[in-house]
Amino acid sequence: MSATLSKTTHSSKPALEVRNLSRIFDVGGGILRKARPLRACEDINLIVERGEVLGIVGESGSGKTTLSRMMLGLMKPTAGEILIDGRPIHSIDRHELSRKIQPIFQDPYSSLNPRKTIGQIITLPLEAHGIGTQSERNLALEQIMSEVGLPPRLKHSYPSQLSGGQRQRVAIARALIIKPEILICDEPTSALDVSVQAQILNLLKDLRASHNLTYLFITHDLGILDYVADKVAVMYMGRIVELGTARTILAAPRHPYAQALLGSVLTPEPELDLPDLHLGRGFPDPLNPPTGCSFHPRCLKAFAPCAQIRPQTIHQTGHSIECHLYPSDQTGD
Prior knowledge:
The protein is an alpha/beta fold.
């Protein structure tokens, strides 16, 4: 008897919670050389309520993708825990986990099997989970293709016959067909033309409303988060240096790195990961991180304590920042 396709009953817990999460890789090493630690993520704390969009922003190497892989259950953390609906991720069966949380990747072409038709690609999750009869799967295929704006005739086509925007719609349909609660969108529009980006972002917004979805939206572009996000986490060298509502951070970011990211939105260069941040020295070597605040070698506002002492995270209602410029008694509102 095949499984039925139905929405999971929601609990009162946050959709996703991350507690003191870290991931350390041992790099290099050998007979005569000791391996060195690379702290890809360090002491990450996040709460994402049901139906929210959390944007995670930072340069390449900041730890965004490592964090997303741990949330998908593809990588085990070195320390800390991830909870989905209040349940530790390690206690959730892999099949159940994949029905709760699904990814949408940056390059839709590389994530689609070129030898399968669009219909086969989209319905593959149903087959993998043994969900529905063939007629029920065909009906689900028709419904989800309609929702994401794909003409029915394309179900017999192959990925190479589709445009970039159409392929990303296929990837979204494949993720949604088993009715997950959470989507992790890892740079889902960066490989697309600007006009197509807007279409995909509008689609994701509409699907969020119609399916009550929770999004983690990973990007290097704060301009995109201005359009889709409720909250924003700014990552630098594996740490969250500022976290707050999208309105607050995008209107008046406090951390110098977040300020540099926001300033770069105005002069984007599509072929680059991120426009010039005008911060002088490039991204530091994660195998040889700076002492004190990891951002201080590039920070235009650095002063004496920054090079020696790691700043504490200052917490306020709905906002946190890790920076010596904001001592705990002067953060304001």
